[in-house]
Amino acid sequence: QVQLVESGGGLVQAGGSLRLSCAASGRTFSSYTMGWFRQAPGKEREFVANIDWSGGTKNYADSVKGRFTISRDNAKNTVYLQMNSLKPEDTAVYYCNKGLYWGQGTQVTVSS
Prior knowledge:
By secondary structure, the chain is mainly beta. It is built from no helices and eleven strands.
């Protein structure tokens, strides 16, 4: 059974930064692409970023390119999302993803 636990969300002013973490259980963490998605109220869940098993390939949604950075530490079974220059439109619940598994989400609220 895989468990994904996100942390690091909160309330921040526009222009600020937050760092999300996702701790994963299981022995196969280092073999999988990991991703971050988000869902704003009344909207569909959308892709934010992902990172391959080695950390060598990263993909970002156009809306976050240049502001967000995804990284991973396979020794700690953890994936991170560094979010800089936050905007009110980044307000959403952020979810960690590994294959078919999802975390419970962490709320990010950006005030204007």
